Amino acid sequence: MSRGFVREDDKEEPPFIPPRAPLPDGVANYVTPRGLEQLRHERQVLEQERQAAKGSEYDRRRRHAEIDGRLALLQERLSTARVVEPPTTYDEVRFGCTVTLRYLNGEGPGDERQWTIVGVDEASVKEQRIAFTSPLARALMGKRVGDEILSPGGPRPIRALLLHIA
């Protein structure tokens, strides 16, 4: 066939695979039991989506490539997951704890907020769940009720008082 009738741009571009939440090199992939279940459920949903892919051959191939890429990243997280059971005592902040803070500065001094320290794939500001790798979580680790917390964040550091650990 003459090369004059072949489009050079017909090569399929690899699909964009969204990256997972960052986990720094050398840091263990800690997850709560709930977080492990979420990862397993995500894998099940992706496998079902792959089986249900519809459309033209080209569309199915692209969708399968995207899902396969996401499954590979997810499988890596599942294979490195280290489940941390909830603490049995709450004398200091540890992974899996829920803490109540009273903010001492910033936009809402006096405001109280709860945060739960979880794995990187479980974090959701909307659900008040922060990754153990976040600056606030790192500042909280090992603290006790009554301790003042100083965490870098934004243009000014966050100052807060630790009120409760659960």
Q: Secondary structure elements and their pairing?
A:
Blueprint: E1 29-31, H1 33-52, H2 57-80, E2 81-83, E3 98-103, E4 112-118, E5 129-131, H3 135-140, E6 148-151, E7 158-165
Parallel strand pairs: 1-2, 4-5
Antiparallel strand pairs: 3-4, 3-7, 6-7
Quick summary:
The protein is of the alpha/beta class. It has helices spanning 33-52, 57-80, 135-140, and strands at residues 29-31, 81-83, 98-103, 112-118, 129-131, 148-151, 158-165. A hairpin with an 8-residue loop joins strand 3 (98-103) and strand 4 (112-118).
Describe the structure.
With 166 residues, the protein is α/β, with parallel strands linked by helices. It has 2 domains: 25-83; 98-165, Transcription elongation factor, GreA/GreB, C-terminal domain (Chitinase A, domain 3, Roll). The chain has helices at 33-52, 57-80, 135-140; strands at residues 29-31, 81-83, 98-103, 112-118, 129-131, 148-151, 158-165. A 5-stranded mixed sheet has the order 5-4-3-7-6. β3 (98-103) and β4 (112-118) form a beta hairpin. α1 (33-52) packs antiparallel against α2. The mean pLDDT is 89.
